[in-house]
UniProtKB/TrEMBL annotation:
The lineage of its organism: Bacteria, Bacillati, Actinomycetota, Actinomycetes, Kitasatosporales. It comes from Streptomyces formicae. The keyword Zinc does not apply. Keywords: DNA-binding. This is GAF domain-containing protein. Residues 270-336 form the OmpR/PhoB-type domain. The keyword rRNA-binding does not apply. Pfam families: GAF. InterPro entries: GAF, GAF-like_dom_sf, OmpR/PhoB-type_DNA-bd.
Amino acid sequence: MGAAGVRRCARCAQVTHREGALTELTGVAGSWAALGTGGDPVRRGSELRRAYERFATAGRVERTVRPVVAESWRRCARAHVTPDGTASVELGDDELGAYRDGHPLSRVMPVIRELMGVYAVDGEHLVAVCDAQARLLWVEGHPEARRRARRMNFVEGARWAEAVAGTNAPGTAVALDRPVQVFAAEHFRRPVQEWTCAAAPVHDPLSGRLLGAVDITGGDPLAHPHSLAFVGAVARAAESQLALLAPRPAEGSVQLTALGRDEALLVAEGRKLRLSRRHSEILVMLARRPEGLSGDELLLELYEDEHVTPVTLRAELSRLRALLGPRLLLSRPYRLAVPVDADFDAAARRLASGAVAAAVSGYAGPLLPGSRAPGVVRLRGRLADQLRAAVIARGDPGLLSDWAYSPWGEDDLAVWQALAAVLPRGRRAAAQARARELDAEYST
């Protein structure tokens, strides 16, 4: 995409985001923006400082605090984030270069720089891009702002996930998977409270998987709906560029995305289909068994209730065939006519080859987490258990942190104990506290 095309994408994206309208550039982004148009940052900053200290000392949230911030503060308190700490650097220079060169967002950094670079330098701001674990991969912008940001470890390689660095725009945007702005004392950690930041998540345009977030960080002038709309537009432009750069799927190929979502996404014959829960379960089972399954075998894999009749299954398959087309779904036995590239199979292949980091990076969550279909439950548990065991065995602090601070790992005692054992002495306190908390819960 040329510069003009990227700018057109950005202008179009300025009024939309994944869940609907974000904001007009002159409008207000609701509770996701820190200040409305015409808001007084000085008065609001004083109000927030008083509210923050009340929360820090008494655990009480004032009504003046935005709900998105109040909920984030509570999550940070539960994660034992220290108010006066700083972010830790998890990717050293020896790891950072290779990791970010292989990251999908490296391909859209030219677009991000073109749209944000001059704005950041002229406004004495910073542009940051993080991965899905909120590790900062690029931090660029005004030299003086970069120097000041180093004091709070807002640097490349540092992990700014909400659960370890407190409320902040890139970490909270990744945690909530939506654009968000954080102003002054809305930040959970005091060293960050002189800053304002706005961030928006970036997704893989094919699978919808969260890749990371783009962020702009600076002073009080950023506390305006414009900056939130702007960073949202840049994120959408980055996704548009990723779509253009993505290799065209092989003719007849099918992609199935089912990790971390109850309704799988199927891309086939140029169409992108969001499947119902039952159709998602059927496709997962057929993808795992390319040789096909009989009606009786499918019944056992899909239904807990042994009294469900073959008529019920045939009706579901008939609806699925109408959706996919007769060329894709065959019968006798039931099978798919073409190979399926499934994200859960890709994670299993990476793990089997010893590429644990790549397997964890591609693991967006449990397979169809809400499904109770026996076949899905077995497959979901097997993949999660194998990944978890590999992460514990590897003993890598970064991988253990990724798992422990994920929604599926936050209550995993063994992982928290393993993480506490491998972290440097000065960074163990939060992991040890969480491990003790879980141990006490499981002992009662």
